[in-house]
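ok trying again, last paste got cut off:
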Amino acid sequence: MSAALAGSVSNTIPVNATIDSACIFDGESTALSFHYDAVNGITQQEGGQSATLYCNFGTMIVDDRHGITIDTVEPVSPGGNTLRVAYDVQMQDAGGTSPGAQYYGADARYWTVTATAAAGQWQPDTGTKEGSVTINVSF
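nice, full thing came through this time. structure:
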């Protein structure tokens, strides 16, 4: 003897998914390097590119500087003499990623950095000095 089915019932559970903004820097930054002399200013400038910033689609808009701040530290000599440098930091579109790539569909940006320094700065002593440019992204 088998049991007869008298009917069926169902219940639907709503699902509400909130997609939060997410960003990550991935890859390596390329150091900005240059030579400086008090007669000619900056020469032999090369490098100066951030790692790539990936954000889920819609978190960042091309050319949108909202939520982005730049912190800079000028090169300082051990004796405290600072080479007065102005940094130009530009955001660039990194283009799309291919299907199957880790960050496929993400907005991708990177920053390039160049430096200018007026000739005539005789105070900094010779040798290699270190400074920095930090890209801060709030989302």
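cool. The longest strand covers residues 107-116. Strands lie at 23-26, 33-37, 41-46, 52-55, 68-76, 86-93, 107-116, 130-137.
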